[in-house]
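Look over this record as teaching material.
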Amino acid sequence: MSTVVVARKGAQLAIASDSLVTFGETRLPHGYEANAKMFTVGGSWIGAVGTTAHMPVLRQALGTLAPEELQLGSRDAIFDTFLRLHPRLKDKFFLNSKEHDSDPYESSQFSILIANVHGIFGVESYREVFEFERFWAIGSGRRFALGAMHATYVKAKTAREVAEAGVLGGCEFDTSSAGPVRVHTFKCLMKETT
């Protein structure tokens, strides 16, 4: 699957990912495929995990939203954006929105992180939106990344250090994650609470 993380330290935000793509038992390490688990849209960095089909679909689908529909600056705005996006994913991109018969809602089938000047957010398959104060991780390497970021956070001087530690932890112990680490940093408007 992958390891994608986001971290905030002071006024710096960092979003990072591993570079491995897998197809079942086949691995496409760095240098074999121009893999981008992260992309920008509307002034935000988006990182996604799951099927490789999510990346072009999310890039294109988010790109079809008008500027007033693509709002990623708060939990409520992100929820509204992904609520608008869900029917388009089904109608234009043929999303299979059913995971299990007992699902309470239709699934959008993805797990993403959003990093922008307003903070760090996560969106899960039922369009649940979370806002994180320090860091978070998604993907199969998530547990290792969270542990590494937790152990590094207090000592780290920058969000980049925290994010890199997270992805490296995922790459070290998760069979579906591998380097090199891809990382993007920028300034945010808010500082994390301690």
